[in-house]
Amino acid sequence: MSSQDIPEETLPSEQGAAHVAVAVAKEDPFADPGLPPHKPRVQDIDERAAKRSERTVALLFTVSMLATIGFIASYVILPVDKIVYIFPIGHVSALNFALGLTLGLALFCIGAGAVHWARTLMSDVEVADERHPIEATPEVKAKVMADFAAGAEESGFGRRKLLRNTMFGAMAMVPLSGVVLLRDLGPLPEDKLRHTMWSKGKLLINQNTHQPLRPEDVAVGSLTFAIPEGLEEHAHDFQNQIAKAALMIVRIQPKDIKDKRELEWSHDGIVAYSKICTHVGCPISLYEQQTHHVLCPCHQSTFDLSDGARVIFGPAGHALPQLRIGVNDEGYLEALGDFEEPVGPAFWERG
């Protein structure tokens, strides 16, 4: 139906259309609706409710302090290698679990206490303020200081000593967790890197058979691996000890030994050298009996066992340490002391 078919009385008049257009134009779609009326909280009108909230916040801060104490106690008491079963996580390090749990609880309680304090005790009246230039005038600065003082007063920071003191205590103790962790950055492990389990009279135990070695057990040209007597594979520190005490036992014809000290520290051509490469600590296991060379499989450092285990190729910085050995009254090979220098890669205390 075209506009010609519509009766004239049903069409809007020009005056009516102009009135509608003016009305729409006067409506501001971005008008400021203003702030809703403030509704007081139960803590604002009931001091008992405010006290309950205060005690709740104080409890959270106190739990944070106790968790921090638990963190420090866990770090001191729990051994590094202790494993526990935690459902449903499974087997985890007891120390790591305790440290994570206590530190997380300490930080969570501080955050939860601060949030609960802000939501229940601090003023929640919304205040609208006009934007101002970046450079503050003296009047604005005075207003800021006045607002700060008013906010401090409304927060109850000065009046509610229990909240203030427990918050200070919790926040002061949490950093102690980090201070305790600094212990691991100290000069420890003192001189432990200079010593191994080898000592005078300790038998050389075949690492494969777990039996003491006799001189006749070591054939010329053979390579045997040994560990010190008393080192058990199920011991909690086995990996730490074997990383320093692992030995290579090789028998060379005495006439083929070029180094005088090596000959003196051997027994009938049987020499004992550290198995730990002096480059980055890889275990050495490749022996060439014709040349008496041993090769590290990691970076191809090569040592001459007939000449004091000196480096003849590769990135290793110094020779393999030799262990002085002998035979006891029962005919077993034994150590005559510890290594006279640290085993493995060079480190800052090497003198």
TrEMBL record:
InterPro entries: QcrA_N, Rieske_2Fe-2S, Rieske_2Fe-2S_sf, Rieske_Fe-S_prot. Pfam families: QcrA_N (PF19297), Rieske (PF00355). The keyword Metal-binding applies. Residues 239-334 form the Rieske domain. It is found in: Cell membrane. The keyword Protein biosynthesis does not apply. Keywords: 2Fe-2S, Cell membrane, Disulfide bond, Electron transport, Iron, Iron-sulfur, Membrane, Metal-binding, Oxidoreductase, Respiratory chain, Transmembrane, Transmembrane helix, Transport. The chain crosses the membrane at residues 57-77, 97-118. It is a multi-pass membrane protein. Iron-sulfur subunit of the cytochrome bc1 complex, an essential component of the respiratory electron transport chain required for ATP synthesis. The bc1 complex catalyzes the oxidation of menaquinol and the reduction of cytochrome c in the respiratory chain. The bc1 complex operates through a Q-cycle mechanism that couples electron transfer to generation of the proton gradient that drives ATP synthesis. Belongs to the Rieske iron-sulfur protein family. This is Cytochrome bc1 complex Rieske iron-sulfur subunit. It comes from Streptomyces sannanensis.
